[in-house]
User: Fold these one by one.
Assistant:
Number 1:
Amino acid sequence: MNLTVYLAGQIHDDWREELAKQAEERNLPLTFVGPQTDHDRSDAIGEAILGKQPSAFYRDDAASAVNNFRTEVLMKKADLVIGLFGEKYKQWNTAMDISTAITLNKPTIIVRPESLIHPLKELSNKANVTVETIEQALDVVAYIYE
Amino acid sequence: MNLTVYLAGQIHDDWREELAKQAEERNLPLTFVGPQTDHDRSDAIGEAILGKQPSAFYRDDAASAVNNFRTEVLMKKADLVIGLFGEKYKQWNTAMDISTAITLNKPTIIVRPESLIHPLKELSNKANVTVETIEQALDVVAYIYE
Amino acid sequence: MNLTVYLAGQIHDDWREELAKQAEERNLPLTFVGPQTDHDRSDAIGEAILGKQPSAFYRDDAASAVNNFRTEVLMKKADLVIGLFGEKYKQWNTAMDISTAITLNKPTIIVRPESLIHPLKELSNKANVTVETIEQALDVVAYIYE
Amino acid sequence: MNLTVYLAGQIHDDWREELAKQAEERNLPLTFVGPQTDHDRSDAIGEAILGKQPSAFYRDDAASAVNNFRTEVLMKKADLVIGLFGEKYKQWNTAMDISTAITLNKPTIIVRPESLIHPLKELSNKANVTVETIEQALDVVAYIYE
Amino acid sequence: MNLTVYLAGQIHDDWREELAKQAEERNLPLTFVGPQTDHDRSDAIGEAILGKQPSAFYRDDAASAVNNFRTEVLMKKADLVIGLFGEKYKQWNTAMDISTAITLNKPTIIVRPESLIHPLKELSNKANVTVETIEQALDVVAYIYE
Amino acid sequence: MNLTVYLAGQIHDDWREELAKQAEERNLPLTFVGPQTDHDRSDAIGEAILGKQPSAFYRDDAASAVNNFRTEVLMKKADLVIGLFGEKYKQWNTAMDISTAITLNKPTIIVRPESLIHPLKELSNKANVTVETIEQALDVVAYIYE
Amino acid sequence: MNLTVYLAGQIHDDWREELAKQAEERNLPLTFVGPQTDHDRSDAIGEAILGKQPSAFYRDDAASAVNNFRTEVLMKKADLVIGLFGEKYKQWNTAMDISTAITLNKPTIIVRPESLIHPLKELSNKANVTVETIEQALDVVAYIYE
Amino acid sequence: MNLTVYLAGQIHDDWREELAKQAEERNLPLTFVGPQTDHDRSDAIGEAILGKQPSAFYRDDAASAVNNFRTEVLMKKADLVIGLFGEKYKQWNTAMDISTAITLNKPTIIVRPESLIHPLKELSNKANVTVETIEQALDVVAYIYE
């Protein structure tokens, strides 16, 4: 049974590739989808399609529309969601995507470092499982196939 | 027509009281609900009800369960949601509550300072309206009654 | 049994006041809600709240956000929807609101002149009832109380 | 990941074929569905199946029932919707289909010329993205696959 | 706790008045709603509002649109549905209304004579409770208040 | 694009085989599902599985549970529903299945003889299309593929 | 803000009265609803309304239909659910009602003795909050009003 | 037509293997999914992934989170649910899973021994069919393919 996994979260390191590689090593039949991970491309996509906008505010609004379109299409395809928080940045998109997933009744795993226990406590409480590493997240997914 | 408004967002100043006062001055028939705004009480509520927990992690988990219960009951009652972001703290609960509200098709207004335009761009794009002050948020709500 | 009626449609004459007056004459216990009917105010509301926008496009986008917010709040309150098309203007908002209402399973009446039968045929087919005058629309609503 | 795209909008030129051709040139794995594009066939389908109707009104009603049936079946299959407005005709079906798609939470792109910014502003505000050309619409869809 | 009860079913005798009288005698705080019970009015309502139709078929179609509008508005208000089948007539409206109510998760009671056990067996199996008299139907409703 | 069609309706002649044959002759890529068409088997299935029941009433209740289970599984798989009414029998199952399908937003076609126009008028009004022959029903479905 | 609370759970002692008394002492504006708490009446209600059944099995089936009808009507009215497990009996109705409430997104509190932690662990994990006493359950509800 | 079947229920004997073997002997095109059936693994999975917990209570909570995640992913994939109750243990998970399935409108079969008729009567009444053996459960499923 192939499952599609949406990988929400920060796009500042290669955690998605690492997770995908580990999943492949474990022979888990998973298809991964997620946001644009090229940060500059993500910020520029609105102007790339719609042309120059009048200011940073409108540039951001145009980019976010395209990014949200992508996320919406792909999250609908997902059987489950893994959302990773890192120690840096606001990461409100991650919180937004995970909260959307939970409200849509998508089974959801949060990965976050110990240092973020307190600020993420309500979101963790709503997710199915919260872990600290991507190995643990894959352990949870692998358990479906046992 | 009385409307119930859930006030999501930070609990570190008295913006809710200020907003309620202004609403009263404008004679807007609004009922406000929201999270526990006593920060210490909010963090301690799990242990206050369930007793001493084994560590900070479990203390947080117990508190978040009660806080989420409260939010869930009150947000279901809300006709619309106003969520305010400040410049400090992670405010992931605010992002979570607003994203939940949007996914539940609650009409939603975000209030955030100009400095947060970029990190909030995707969430702003999904909300109905984003403004910078609580006066503006009330302007939007007052427009319903014109 | 009081019913709330959303009055979708053009805002270029006083059909809503006329309909409300006739409903009162018939003693129908109806509460009417609807969009902003001051056309200039409707077009200007975005800038009135958010301030001057960089161009007509952004002015329109800001106004539409606030107008959609209002519509969404009020349509949720409606037990039924009456949408009126006139012979002038694009009236895509009317088509949008009626289609939204139908998709949300709100019982819906369309009022349109005979000249619009053909271009409105698919929308009419999806609505519950299509009539040509507001008297007839009220006949349909009054029938609930017989 | 193959995606099914419903192409709502006017049926007076060959924009669907053009869009499909461009999608193929870009190797996008998309399946396109949409309304009957033979305008005469679309208007005549009711009588073609049900026989001669008593007047133009009933002829239109019969045709619209079959057209709506087709749209409903195919839109349920769609992962996303692209709706194109041209400068001519009422195009209320386009507004209806896009509004239905948005209410059903289908990710939606509007294509419209600059001249229609104002009358389409509320619908644009509810769609995910609004662009001016089918190339741009495909840019948005292609972004999902980056 | 006042409950609203939709009384689906045949309109050829005064079972609704009888049921309402008995409910009043038992002091049950129930509000009853239901279809038009004047059979001629029900059949004629389409032409009464829309004017003379080209044939019996179109007369029926016009009437059914208005009747369905009424049913839809009132059934949404209902906390529970009682549907009564008699020994005469097709009563497909009754089957339709009860099936709609069950699919909408409205708690539903069927009242039918013993002679109809067999043809109604699948519908009975889907309803909450099936009884043979309106006294028994009220017994079931009264049990809510014990 | 293969579509699955649930064939609701009477099981007293071979209309399903006839319709399937015609669909094959037209090369329509349709998969047909439907109720048990062996009438005796349908009535006996409860006792066949659960053993002898105390009376005809309980025999019917046991059978209907299994029949409803089958219908529920298969209708969920259906992209559209065709329901056929004949001139004989109560056919309340047909009305029930069609009403369920419509309430679940399944696109639905009714086939019924001219003699049943009046008693089926409200159900016809809620269905997408009503025709008189299975050829016409297939015409409607074939139109999806034009 | 008055809230309606469904009290699911065993009916072998007066915990509902005790809880209601304590709520009153705390001046909590709560309305309590719940199942029939007269155990004999609950078991006999089917035969009381429908008459003597052929065996204990059918007696039970008739009673459960009426009990489920009552539960369904009242749970729909509830803003939140409190479910109490005791140390005796199977209490599958309690598990059923709580699981139904959670699946319907009703905020839910479980009350259970320490001895039942293990067998209830999955259900507890899905509920919002699990406590050991009705005082604690009221603490959770009272927190909404702080 | 391949169907996916979730097998809820006790994990203390090999009824799932037996049922799967019988399904294969009958050539039923079914895919079976279900909970972890290694009881020790199921109880230990939380600590296996998250590490040692402070007490049995937290160990149980951690395990149940992972078990619920698995169940949620797999039940969404299921076309129908078979839930088996045995004579031993609390089996509240079984009641929870079946009640969840019913509330999600999954067609559901309960298998239980005669001795459990009374305590399971309300749950049986809500399920589609209740039988006493896995052979009978497969008879019900096989009937879909007749």
Number 2:
Amino acid sequence: MTRERTGKAQEKNSLELRPIGVIRSKLKERSRAPKQGSEGAPDAWLEIYRFAAPALDGLAAGDEIIILTWLHRARRQTLRVHPRSDPKRRLSGVFATRSPDRPNPIGLHQVTVRKIAKNRLRIGPLEAIDGTPVVDIKPVLCEIQKHSL
Amino acid sequence: MTRERTGKAQEKNSLELRPIGVIRSKLKERSRAPKQGSEGAPDAWLEIYRFAAPALDGLAAGDEIIILTWLHRARRQTLRVHPRSDPKRRLSGVFATRSPDRPNPIGLHQVTVRKIAKNRLRIGPLEAIDGTPVVDIKPVLCEIQKHSL
């Protein structure tokens, strides 16, 4: 019952993320970054903070993973945008787009692990800019259950 | 420059999520919920809070979307788990699994929009339990660019 009560309390309070790492990339500015990883983005380093390193156990080069980032330059008040920043396209709610500007600017990036060097993962392609906080890593669940975890 | 500075400040401070809605489901307990939506989970309602409703514009029944939730009953100190709670499987880092127990318990759920009734979306299948806070909605980006947003 104690854990149930803790859960209730958390629900009423703020939901606070703790970064587990950070992106190190040659992309330095949002305005120059591709909109999606598949649009010519480079590989990047993901540095995992010491406290979270044990959670990497089981990941290997070649894995397809999902990186969740905190898009720290985003505008959280934005609720409608022109898709792909194209003023000719009619305004759309941000939940129908992948705009980084949204109430909770969590980025979702599917990447391949190129190599792992201690607490650093070489991953790509990735459109997130240098300094972007990373909040989670998940395996891709695919049809053939390559990752059935 | 002002926005750049705000970004820098946010990076140093806490990263706080603001729920944009909540799940209403017949699943009431984590222990009875399927581990993935594809494992027999039911449809559920997603109630969007009033402030975020304009961000729904452009979503329609039939859309494939990704729901990001805050798994409020998760244990955030957990860094290793037995995959699928099977004690016979060797301990694995949580980043190599889909365990809800992880430093930032963000749930990632791909669902179909069954219908939209004002600020409520009928979605499924969904394994998240009743009362789970929702923090983001994104369109699925697929090969054929059905959603090129």
